[in-house]
Amino acid sequence: MKKSILLIIAIFFFNQAFAEIWLPSILSDNMVLQQESEVTFWGWTTNTNEKITITPSWNNISVEIKAYQGKWQGKLTTPKAGGIYTITIQGHEEISIKNVLIGEVWLGSGQSNMEWTPAQGLVNAEEEIKNANYPEIRFFQVSKHIANTPQENTKGKWFVCSPETMKNFSSIAYLFGRKLHKELGIPVGLISSNWGGTPIETWIPEQMMNGNKSLQETAKKITPRAWWPNETGLAYNAMIYPLLNFNIAGVIWYQGESNRENAVSYYKSFPLLIDSWRKAFGKVFPFYYVQIAPYKYDDLQGVDAAVVRDAQLQTMLEIPKTGMVVTNDIGNLENIHPINKQDVGLRLALWALAKDYGKSDLVYSGPIYKSMEIKKKKIILNFDYADNGLVKKGKELNEFYIAGDDQKFYPAKAKVVGKTVVVSAKAVKKPVAVRFAFTNGALPNLFNKENLPASAFRTDYWEIKLK
Q: Which domain holds residue 422?
């Protein structure tokens, strides 16, 4: 009997000595937590039913929880932006998370244009890198990997923004975050989870795609390539799912080039991605994204990329708390990775500052088609975000096309009249529809007075035949 008791005691102390508590990589030194919100702390322990105490230095009020089958999770309420703080997690051992800030946390995701770093190509890169000393901006880079099932953790680490760390981080995410930091005067945390070349389907949870047979079929049209995943959910499982417990302010997104092969399905897949992420995070956060830039692709006059842009426009018009950045003035027909990321980051930040941070005096979008009026041989186009008027850059407005009932589009003469554009063509006696910048490589020149470009659009709902 004595020997049995001694053995039990020995096993107990052995388990205690070699027990371990660990956290997901997103909960680590240098992180930024979302201000004035409820944030989740979670992790694992080899001690099945261990009691865990979490104590933040901003108020020293402890939260006690008990692990269940080796997993534990607790919630803390964060104060207004500030820091530096330490968070202590105490069980049979103690873990301290140091150099923690409270501020605004944004997730940047998509394909290569969101992934692209200053080291890979950026206007004035040397100067931008040299000046990237912002200790209150923090970076978390999710590594590229896939999984067939949702993963609870991902490789990654928080870094303080410096020239050395910034040069290999997403240019757009950094420039977006820098603008927020400067305007708001608070810490900003940026999570970069992206993979060049990936179609949207690999970022959508598999169960969401399984509920839509048409999307499943069109997903098969995308050509498999060796350098990135294209199957439903593989990137989501490995690179988004592990972040779901981490409270974020919102998402910025730049993707779409790889969906030209099944462009029409983007009208459904893009809203599905936004809806699925919001449900997964349990929060209807703002979702701001970049309309894909003009590029030569296989055919400058083709319309597959134009259809993706139109799907992006329609998503903004139909889905609440979304916003779109137009880039048809800063693209490069010879480079699918235009190096002017400064304007992209700034334009994304304008949406957030105006819609989420109370900067009501900002114009945050270029002209967006609103309605049209047919007057004899002319069509008058009305726009939102043109309160101060419209302007053209160059001698004549370009990239406007007009059609009659035969659905044949002809180049149109276009003229700015105050807040409207009037279009006509000699070849079209009874016009019924207009398209603007509706080709892969369109380089239009219509802006509002705030120097933000107008989005491509079409007034018709006719079927578009793609190659």
A: 368-458
